[in-house]
Amino acid sequence: xxxxxxxxxxxxxxxxxxxxxxxxxxxxxxxxxxxxxxxxxxxxxxxxxxxxxxxxxxxxxxxxxxxxxxxxxxxxxxxxxxxxxxxxxxxxxxxxxxxxxxxxxxxxxxxxxxxxxxxxxxxxxxxxxxxxxxxxxxxxxxxxxxxxxxxxxxxxxxxxxxxxxxxxxxxxxxxxxxxxxxxxxxxxxxxxxxxxxxxxxxxxxxxxxxxxxxxxxxxxxxxxxxxxxxxxxxxxxxxxxxxxxxxxxxxxxxxxxxxxxxxxxxxxxxxxxxxxxxxxxxxxxxxxxxxxxxxxxxxxxxxxxxxxx
Length: 309
Fold this sequence. Notes:
Blueprint: H1 3-24, E1 36-39, H2 41-45, H3 54-66, E2 70-73, H4 78-81, E3 92-95, E4 100-103, E5 108-112, H5 117-130, E6 135-139, E7 144-146, H6 148-153, E8 162-163, H7 167-171, E9 178-182, H8 188-198, E10 203-209, E11 212-217, H9 222-232, E12 240-244, H10 250-255, E13 258-262, H11 267-272, E14 275-277, H12 284-292
Parallel strand pairs: 1-2, 1-12, 2-3, 7-8, 12-13, 13-14
Antiparallel strand pairs: 3-4, 4-5, 6-7, 6-9, 9-11, 10-11
Helix pairs in contact: 1-9, 5-8
């Protein structure tokens, strides 16, 4: 099947599923067994220090050995995921809010979906006209480009990134899969509406942190990316438990069979969840999936080895 046709059908099914699960969410029962797991990364699977805990690493091993599909979905691009110790155990990762599928084991991009250059240039000009102090970052799969305003607002400065002054220069040689915006006075909640207006018809604005708004290409989302990957592994939405903490995880919540918000999540996410589980720093994903796999707390596959010599 042609990729575009297949993708359109998936998107229609996702929209239908969203309507059904939103209406019926209160009536759903907690699954007794999980056949697939989808999880956000920062604030969910990762601890607050950006690490994969021993318990989570053991869970990743258990999922692989038991043949249970795991798909991680994140706003990060592969460039940023590579910084995580043990990232290669994540397998295939839906990156840039659904714009990129990357294999962490082989460090290879499987597919990517970028912005149309002329439309992107116009949208960036539009958001700058509306918000003169806004900072703009353009992200390709492997590189992050920062303008001066974004650079001044980024705690890490230019670390791991390049600077730019002309949007056209970046677009002439790089395919952009995501745009990030920062503002010196507006929170992410406040920045989403003008960003959505500037990128209307081109991209979808959401946020995974309280200071940054991400815009992914219009056809991209975590839910679509995860649905495609789970379909490849013959795992249905109904059989998948999903985890998240921020509003960009809400489409994934609507798609999955059981939606779990970690306790440290955004209020909108906590309200939309079927279940609130322990926080990311308390290994909420590992502690929730473990009994669904039928494994006891002292199983060698899921034991937290933090006390091991």
